[in-house]
Design a protein that fits this description.
Length: about 180
């Protein structure tokens, strides 16, 4: 018997509760996965730095504030990580042509190389974790996970829009 109380918004046997529990387990597993990733070439990148490098690789040069928004963390957290990454030569700052008071962060070639090695190391560990899965199971899981992520991203964006337009002090329902 679990000490976690059942919610009152779902019916008994509702798969949403099982999904919620498995998401908690997934988050723990991903953190654990990161702990065993060791690239064959180059340094291991800590998880927060890895996320920043991944986003910089995906989005190209961007402001630190945009990076913080994309990663759902405070700007101060991103700023500390950027200072470390810049010190290692993995990112560099450049003036923002749109606003000379601001700067953009972009990944250096050294940063791209470190990211490539760390991505490959993660793929190696993940491949080992999924070794018992059939090709059909992997394809289905990838499609469902993609669909899930898209649904969560759309719903959270909708909630943010509702919160942004709601009068101060009101609570938005259907979250």
């Amino acid at each position: 018997m679990s000490d976690i109380p059942s919610t009152t918004t779902t019916s008994p046997g509702d798969p949403t509760e099982a999904i919620a529990r498995e998401l908690v387990a997934l988050i723990r597993s991903v953190k654990d996965l990161h702990g065993v990733v060791v690239p064959q070439d180059g340094p291991t990148v800590e998880r927060p730095a890895f996320l920043i490098l991944m986003r910089a690789a995906e989005a190209g040069p961007l402001r630190p504030s945009a990076l913080a928004d994309a990663l759902c963390v405070d700007l101060s957290t991103v700023s500390r990580q950027l200072a470390t990454l810049e010190g290692r030569g993995w990112i560099e700052r450049q003036p923002d042509d749109q606003d000379r008071r601001a700067h953009l962060v972009r990944m250096t070639e050294a940063g791209r190389q470190v990211l490539r090695h760390n991505v490959q190391a993660r793929l190696d560990v993940l491949t080992g974790s999924l070794a018992g899965w059939s090709s059909a199971e992997l394809t289905s899981f990838a499609a469902q996970l993609t669909r899930f992520n898209a649904a969560v991203n759309e719903h959270t964006a909708q909630i943010r829009r509702q919160v942004a337009t709601a009068p101060t002090g009101t609570r938005q329902e259907n979250r």
